[in-house]
Design goal:
- There is one protein chain.
- By secondary structure, this protein is an alpha+beta fold.
- The chain is 41% helix and 24% strand.
- It has four helices and five strands; from the N terminus they run αβαββαβαβ.
- A five-stranded antiparallel sheet has the order 4-1-3-2-5.
- The N and C termini lie far apart (35 Å).
């Protein structure tokens, strides 16, 4: 039992101290009846943004287990972006989310939620459960 607690503590502290950003944007994937929408449009946008703007690494975390139908959140660190890059990033991210929500079937597909003014801090994420880094 002591080994399990020690392992969890080491993993948790490693994840906490590995976080470079202090501020994160939150993208929520919610279900209506039949599961959550795909994260592919957002992830494709992140890849394109990185290539276009020559950003080396975006810090992305996924928090799973938020509901019965697979609801989850993505957290994207923005501290490594300049002010102009951050503004362009948010505009493009809003467009990708809006496009995905507009193309969904209103009765059965889930929604992607994004509020640009909602900033999640490193302290908030340190208390989050089921948080895993995504390599992109």
């Amino acid at each position: 039992m002591k080994k399990a607690v020690l392992t969890i503590a080491i993993f948790g502290s490693t994840l906490f101290f590995a976080q470079k950003s202090q501020n994160y944007l939150q993208i929520g994937y919610a279900s209506v009846c039949c599961g959550t929408p795909s994260e592919k449009p957002v992830m494709d946008y992140l890849t394109q943004f990185k290539q276009k703007n020559k950003v080396k690494n975006l810090e992305i975390y996924k928090q799973s287990g938020l509901g019965r139908e697979g609801e989850y959140n993505l957290y994207i660190g923005t501290d490594g972006l300049s002010k102009t890059q951050k503004n362009n990033f948010i505009k493009g991210l809003k467009a990708a989310v809006n496009s995905q929500n507009n193309a969904r079937s209103k009765n059965s597909d889930g929604m992607v939620n994004f509020n640009e003014s909602e900033i999640i801090t490193k302290a908030d994420l340190s208390n989050a459960r089921n948080l895993t880094p995504i390599k992109k």
